[in-house]
Design goal:
Layout (H helix, E strand, L loop, with lengths): L2 H15 L17 E6 L18 H8 L7 E5 L2 E5 L8 E2 L24 E5 L12 H6 L5 H69 L19 H6 L22
Length: 263
């Protein structure tokens, strides 16, 4: 009979340790046993399988009935929803047990995550002891699955760079074209100037030649008597017409010539 007080004391102590909505501390997984894995701020790849509407959710209902149908290794609880899957949430998402404080409807002395914030009570179903944790979102994105926001920002930066390069190329091409046009205009101006100058020199040379030709080809006016003052000896025609027997003054052709005739 002396053992009865001791048993009663243990029972009272156990009853006093039960608190509504208390998160079970994490323990090492045990094969074929449901064990707590802690409170997390994400559920990672865990999904709601459905098919338990109207049931009072607890770890026993979700682990033994709902997630057992898919042979899931991990169980998650939040409010009145069960989540099943095959990997724990990322280790970086583990938080203090106090954040999971919502009393499960099926068993109020355990926590079903939290409805005041996005927190999940995570369990190992006992199907497999060695279960991997999901990778953080940042690590996943760094391996190639980048977020839409980062992709959009990268695309915007590429467009801006492309526009900048297009603008630079367009400016260079425009500058080259303008330079070529200016150079061509300058060369054309010099060409027309030299051509005009050359034309003026040719015209001036023609005027000088015309003046010289006019001066050289000018004939002196004839005398009032109608006789030329040119020496007849310089005219070969007159020399042939002269008679062999005529007496001519070899020095003065202005005097009359005495001719000998037969009577």
């Amino acid at each position: 009979m002396k053992f009865l007080p001791i048993i009663f004391s243990v029972g009272v102590l156990a009853a006093e340790t039960l608190v509504r909505g208390q998160q079970r501390p994490a323990v090492n997984p045990i094969l074929n046993a449901l064990t707590s894995h802690g409170c997390y701020k994400s559920k990672a790849s865990l999904k709601d399988p459905g098919g338990y509407e109207g049931e009072k959710v607890s770890s026993g209902l979700c682990g033994d009935v709902i997630c057992n149908k898919t042979n899931s290794t991990v169980l998650g609880l939040r409010g009145t929803t069960c989540y099943c899957g095959f990997e724990y949430p990322p280790k970086e998402d583990l938080v203090e047990d106090k954040f999971c404080n919502y009393a499960c409807q099926g068993y109020p002395f355990e926590a079903c995550g939290s409805v005041d914030g996005v927190y999940y009570s995570i369990f190992n179903t006992g199907v497999k002891v060695d279960v991997d944790s999901a990778e953080p979102v940042a690590s996943t994105s760094s391996k190639g699955a980048s977020s839409p926001t980062s992709d959009a920002s990268t695309g915007d930066e590429g467009n801006k760079e492309g526009d900048k390069k297009s603008t630079n190329v367009g400016g260079i091409v425009g500058g080259v074209v303008v330079g070529v046009v200016i150079a061509a205009a300058a060369i054309g101006g010099v060409f027309f100037y030299l051509r005009r100058k050359r034309n003026k020199e040719i015209e001036e040379e023609h005027r000088r030649n015309a003046a010289v030709n006019s001066f050289i080809g000018h004939k002196p006016p004839s005398s009032s008597g109608g006789l030329s003052i040119t020496d007849a000896r310089l005219d070969p025609v007159m020399q042939r017409r002269m008679s062999d027997g005529s007496i001519a003054d070899n020095h003065d052709y202005s005097r009359k010539i005495l001719r000998v005739t037969n009577a």
